[in-house]
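Appendix B, example 12.
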Amino acid sequence: MKKFLIFLILTYLQLAINTRAASESAAGNEKTLKIGVLLPLSGEYQSLGESFLKSIQLALYDISNENIKIYPKDSKANYLDAHKSAKEFEDLGIKIVIGPIFYESLEKLDEINSITFISLTNKTDKIANNIIAFGINIKSQVNALKKYFAEIKVSKTLLLSPRNEFTDQVQIIKNSQLNFDRDFLYDTRPEKITNEIEKLTNYRERKKDLERRIKILENSDLYKDKKELEKLNQKHTLGSINFDSVFVVDFDERLKSVLTSFMFSDVTHKKVNFFTVNQWFDKNLFNEAALQNLHFPAINFDNLIKFENKYFNTYNEKPNKVSILAYDALGLIYYCWINNNSEFKTSHLYNKNGFKGLHGEFEIKGNVSNQKLKIYKISKKKFLKVY
């Protein structure tokens, strides 16, 4: 009996040891996804970097997988510190990094070929092979506008852009198949913009045409002339303009100045369609009458609102809108990793079927994220999706 009890105890201990060893072996084989995060966490752009980092942490929380580890480092918004931090990632064996944000920080990162950087920049010029430009780039915006132009049958479009600014983006737009009737560079000084738009729209000639026609009608006693006179007295100019749409490449106060100058020149959204580039749903645009019905390409607005609400409920503050891309960048990396037997390879990012994130559908091709953007317009202090 005693020998039997000893045998049972030894058997139990052996099983316990084997079970523990198997458990430890399984734990040892459990793969961890290490993700570097390279953002400006100090200096002038610290608040921006922190918003992006919190968005990544929010995505990490939503995924809720303990085998994903993030390693934040400070780029200080310059290429030297970005390169230094990237070398530290390399020493840690990290293969994939979210960041940097700014195009200028990418300068030396091509030297670190063992790491793929998902940068949040929207600039795509001269991107190194180990960098993916994940921002809302101008090519994606042009593609969305091109489809919408075909839908509404736009035929004569003016391309306006500030002189000596956004030259790379403007060149991409010019090289697109939007078929601009004319392109025009305007002076960015507010006092100059109105005069230039007046010339562009032949405002003074149209105003003189109206004055001449009114003078003729005032000397007539015919009923039909009096009715025409009543209508003309409600107008500011007479005669048509030789374009049906305007695409303005600009932002903030200058964009407002340009569109207000068109309104002062008696060219409103009732006569032409006005378009601009992605404005990230800036509500400051609501305050100008001249910006009513202004169209622009953008990400999924409803999902952006959901993201902002989730971020606010978590951190009790509003996020930088662009940080939704950082949230999606982590989701993209995780998706590629979890769907490939917990192995991450850069090639997984180049899925021909594309991906779907909070900001919308996208496909990574040629080191650039090509997004399927929507078209929105401003109407009565709301952003309405029109395409």
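The chain has a mean pLDDT of 90. The two ends are 84 Å apart (CA to CA).
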